[in-house]
UniProtKB/TrEMBL annotation:
Family the entry assigns: Belongs to the glutamate--cysteine ligase type 3 family.
Disordered as annotated region, ranges: 517-537
Annotated metabolic or biological route of this protein: Sulfur metabolism; glutathione biosynthesis; glutathione from L-cysteine and L-glutamate: step 1/2
Annotated GO CC locations: glutamate-cysteine ligase complex
Domain of life (superkingdom): Eukaryota
Reactions catalysed, as given in the entry: L-cysteine + L-glutamate + ATP = gamma-L-glutamyl-L-cysteine + ADP + phosphate + H(+)
Keywords attached to this entry: ATP-binding, Glutathione biosynthesis, Ligase, Nucleotide-binding
Record-linked InterPro entries: GCS (IPR004308), Gln_synth/guanido_kin_cat_dom (IPR014746)
One GO term of the biological process aspect: glutathione biosynthetic process
Protein name as catalogued: Glutamate--cysteine ligase
């Protein structure tokens, strides 16, 4: 989350009148960036991670683990200490230890007023020293966050808070579930970050789509779960807002956990990795090559089996967020004939990527096999101004969306040397990869963000997945690896990743041969090497269904596996023994998650609930189960409980 602009936000009825103007200014800004930075060259690949936390508040008297709504106060405390340190002063009356790592991590707000986000403070490089510093830096972030919280508060890294939206008390302080911004039956507006961007986003999504968001996740049917399952927490008789009619008009589906607010989605936490490439070409290559990995890594990092107090029949957060910010109208969803809207749009704003963008000859046109909805005028304008067709198409696709939050003041300011209008559309296209042009005026390059992974309970796991992705990018660039499959298959994989225990029970489309064709011998002979392709094989022959185990660990002689591939990359570079051992530990965690030797967070949490003495085998997660679960999650996150065997199945006995 970057800097949050301030101003007077327009309600949807006003904002929509300025949508074309914002798009126009946004493209103008994009073209300025393109002209200024497209030839940028840098040598160093930099990267950084973002960790999102839930802030807990325990009510020990009632044995209740709640969400603390003190985000603003905690951030203010953090900022106070940070600025004092930057000024070189001591922190008076502070129990703050002298941190040795510089620069210090930085903390940011997120959508939930119960969330924090932390970044390393400065990007990591690619030295082994930097790679090995990742886990320590993540631990430091957790420690610093904890030190700026009240005694009964703690940061935890869990993608979704199990009790969010339940009937009991799940926030501190408590607020009844009302509020004109979300109009939710379950989550009070007070649980949203009060910065005006967030309530406005929530309200304008509802206004734009013409009803509240409706998120239905399948319930996990246990022995005593009522069947058919009708979510018992829905109040069909509430008459506070016109949107209360939604449930009377069938918004809640049988057999599903029903959620009705943006907070259910954007209140979830993830682990994101951003890479700065050496130039735009490399950024486009990384964007494409990491794209097919998105769903696989979602399944492998699955850690969200509970929503609104019920065990779900899914393990991941993705579709909850997708539904939580789906601002499409009935017309755009193709449910009504087109009258007021311009397009039928197959996906939510938060969804999987729909088009590859690289200029790599390995990108066959058959891979971009979705019927992409684009703004043709915008594409033409970009092409007329020198942007190549592929990139122009990518942005023309993002720009089919309306800007959701427009600050009145920005409409009359000069758009030059800024990116606010461009970012208005770009950063509310929450796809599983993001291609990020350099912000004007700074020294940041072309970046790519990998966004699908779920946050993990411990920093060891978070570091393992971050390091895995970083090493994979190294292998991709150094071997020129090719992960392309038709992008429609990536969509299919995204749906597959949601299945309970997909990591062990499902198969994902994946490319069979990752290596580029061998180049003709450079001995002057004109005869191509035998493997040099003439006519490429049919695209369908290039990919097949594989388990996550096969993708990660390999399949006999047929498929090399990503971890052996990374290992062979490490064999080609100069790594000292100690570093190699440490890296092996991280890779081993990823490998064992894929093989099932270790559990995903989702399976571990599900087992914890199902084995709890208070669990009635009816899918319901009670306050007492939640309390014990959260205590265990917090203990693991802060490095405790291992000697008692807590988390062995998640991390391994000696992990
Ligand atoms: N927490 C989300 C997840 O689990 O995938 C990702 C974070 C996110 O997308 N946050 C929203 C946002 O707009 C908050 S409304 N972030 C800024 C951005 O995407 O540029």
């Amino acid at each position: 989350m970057g800097l949050l602009a301030l101003g007077t936000p327009l309600p949807w009825d006003e904002a929509k009148k300025h949508a074309d103007q914002v798009r126009d200014l946004g493209i103008k800004q994009l073209l300025q960036i393109w002209n200024k930075y497209r030839k940028n060259e840098r040598d160093v690949l930099l990267w950084g991670d973002e960790i999102e936390y839930l802030v807990l508040a325990y009510d020990e008297e009632n044995k209740n683990a709640c969400l603390s709504l003190r985000q603003a106060e905690i951030l203010a405390e953090l900022a106070k200490n940070e600025s004092l340190r930057k000024a070189g002063g001591n922190v008076p009356d502070s129990k703050e230890p002298a941190y040795t790592s510089e620069p210090l991590p930085t903390f940011h707000p997120e959508f939930g007023r119960f969330m924090l986000e932390a970044t390393p403070g400065a990007p990591f490089g690619l030295t082994w020293k930097d790679l090995l510093a990742v886990e320590g830096n993540m631990k430091l972030r957790r420690t610093i966050a904890k030190e700026h919280m009240a005694e009964n508060e703690a940061p935890i890294t869990l993608p979704s808070f199990p009790m969010l939206g339940t009937k009991g008390v799940f926030t501190q302080p408590y607020y009844p579930p009302t509020g004109s911004q979300s109009r939710s039956q379950f989550i009070p507006d007070e649980a949203i970050n009060p910065h005006i961007r967030f309530p406005t986003l929530a309200a304008n999504i509802t206004s734009r789509r013409g009803m509240k968001v409706a998120i239905n996740m399948p319930v996990f049917c246990d022995e005593n779960t009522p069947c058919p399952f009708n979510d018992p927490t829905i109040d069909y008789d509430r008459h506070l807002y016109p949107e209360d009619d939604d449930v009377r008009n069938g918004a809640a589906k049988e057999g599903h956990i029903y959620m009705d607010a943006m907070g259910f989605g954007m209140g979830c936490c993830c682990l994101q990795i951003t890479f700065q490439a050496k130039n735009i070409t490399e950024a486009r290559q990384l964007y494409d090559q990491l794209c097919p990995l998105g769903p696989v890594m979602l399944a492998l990092t699955a850690a969200s089996p509970i929503f609104k107090g019920f065990l779900a029949d899914v393990d991941v957060r993705w579709n909850v967020i997708s539904g939580a910010v789906d601002d499409r109208t009935e017309e755009e969803k193709g449910l009504k004939p087109q009258k007021d809207n311009r397009y039928v749009i197959p996906k939510s704003r938060y969804d999987s990527v729909s088009t590859y963008i690289s200029q790599d000859p390995a990108l066959r046109s058959e891979y971009n096999d979705l019927d992409l909805v684009i703004d043709k005028d915008i594409r033409q304008r970009l092409v007329d101004n020198g942007v190549d067709e592929r990139l122009a198409t990518h942005f023309a696709h993002l720009f089919i969306r309306d800007p959701l939050v427009i600050f009145q003041e920005t409409l009359s300011e000069s758009p030059d040397d800024k990116a606010d209008h461009f970012e208005n559309i770009q950063s509310t296209n929450w796809q599983h990869m993001r291609f990020k042009p350099p912000p004007p005026g700074g020294n940041i390059g072309w970046r790519v963000e990998f966004r699908s992974m779920e946050i993990q309970v411990t920093d060891h796991e978070n570091a393992a997945f971050a390091i895995f992705i970083v090493l994979l990018t190294r292998a991709i660039l150094s071997y020129g690896l090719n992960f392309y499959i038709p992008i429609s298959k990536v969509d299919e994989n995204m749906a597959t990743a949601h299945h309970r225990d997909a990591v062990l029970t499902k198969k994902f489309w994946f490319r069979k041969n990752l290596f580029p064709p061998r180049k003709p011998a450079s001995n002057g002979s004109q005869t191509p090497a035998p493997s040099c392709p003439g006519t490429p094989p049919p695209v369908e022959d290039e990919y097949t269904l594989m388990t996550v185990d096969e993708i990660m660990n390999g399949r006999q002689d047929e498929f090399v596996g990503l971890i052996p591939l990374i290992e062979s990359y490490l064999n080609t570079v100069n790594v000292d023994v100690v570093t190699r051992c440490e890296l092996a530990g991280y890779l081993s965690l990823v490998s064992k998650r894929a093989s099932g030797e270790l559990q995903t967070g989702a399976t571990w949490i599900r087992d914890f609930v199902r084995n709890h003495p208070d669990y009635k085998k009816d899918s319901a997660v009670s306050q007492s189960i939640n309390y014990d679960l959260i205590k265990a999650v917090e203990a693991l996150g802060s490095g405790q409980g291992r000697e008692a065997g807590l988390g062995d199945r998640l991390l391994g006995r000696f992990g």
